[in-house]
Amino acid sequence: MENIRGIALDALLEAESLGRASSGIITDILNKYDYLDQRDKAFIKLLFEGVTERRITLDFILDKRSSVKTRKMKPVIRNILRMGVYQMLYTDAPSYAICKESVNLAGKRGFKGLGGFVNGVLRNLAREIEPLAKENKDITNVLLPKKNETDIKRYLSIRYSIPEVIISIIMKDYGERTESILSAMSETKPVSIRFRSYMSDGEITKVIKSMEESGVILKQDADVRFVYRASHTGDVRKLPGYDEGLFYIQDVSSIKAVISLDIQKGEKILDCCAAPGGKSILASEFTGDEGSVTSCDVSEDKADLIRDNFERLGCKNTNVIVKDASINDSSFNEAYDTVILDVPCSGLGIMGKKRDIKYNLTEEGLASLEELQKKIIDSCVPYVKKGGKLLYSTCTLRHAENEERVLYITEKHGFEIVKGPVTLLPDEAEQDGFFYCILKKK
Known about the structure:
seven-stranded mixed sheet; N-utilizing Substance Protein B Homolog, Chain A; 17 helices; four-stranded antiparallel sheet; globular
């Protein structure tokens, strides 16, 4: 039988050494071990995503209780200890079992001589937290620094496991609301399921009943009729209606942006940075067979991802092109009624889902992103017909990538705002952080 914690360890080591996106790593791991029991796969996912999400918090706790700082530990030992601390704080696993399994895992990976070190660190932590658990105290609150004991940025960084460079950005733009935003990002949110917009309430209800019979809990969105929040979904590809293309997984914030375009039947639409294709699919439903949606992205891999989603959802009025959005194609100029421009961004609004985004941001990288956004804007806004619409959107919260870019579009390219700008913050509802603005070409 496979060692479940060992599989999670391998995924963490791959993420640390290769710098590959965590979402891709865990997907590949779960596909590789698809034969495992569902509970085992869920535990692997919990460990991998939990340790990735809480890395700064876990390292703070370890550094306070270990003679060797985490940055100086061997990668295998560092991640075994991170997994051990995570299990003690965020799962119901008994401390003695966590210690035993961690020591055994170190031995299996060729570090039997460090088993005593692993055991000592985890057992000392267990002795510290077990009395707190018996008194039903918030263990994390006891282990982490108090707000008045340290610099506010450091306090927020440790508590919410967010690098201080990002704390500074959010504090600059949102001030006293920063902690509320960070807290919301750290919460596990339901999956947002979007049914086909043309499905009747009766058709949707039929699929929902099938989902509920498989253990899924669903709640209809307050604003959008065909969107439901779902928990306990497991692998969404195995849900009733998935193979038939009856629904698409898409955050409600992105859905609201497309709805705000008020797309009419027969419109000719261009989605410039389309992968994985969610906005294009919804736009194709609104414009109908009388219209068309052309979806572009920079690589063949991304184009294939869009094509796969179009095929599953049965989109007939769509086509996919590999195209670099930062390079203007004069044959597209003034050819489209509506252009969707969801530009590459820092992704601060979706840190709760893409857990490794926050560890890879740098000031240099942010500056480079801002320049790329300007190039894409300069390249793509000419594609809008006179009197046509432009949707500018990002999944970040930074004013520099949002409001300032809208100002750039209005001042340089002769557009006027017709809706927005709208910033959807993660502490407002069960949604991602998202920004969008609808503009019209004069």
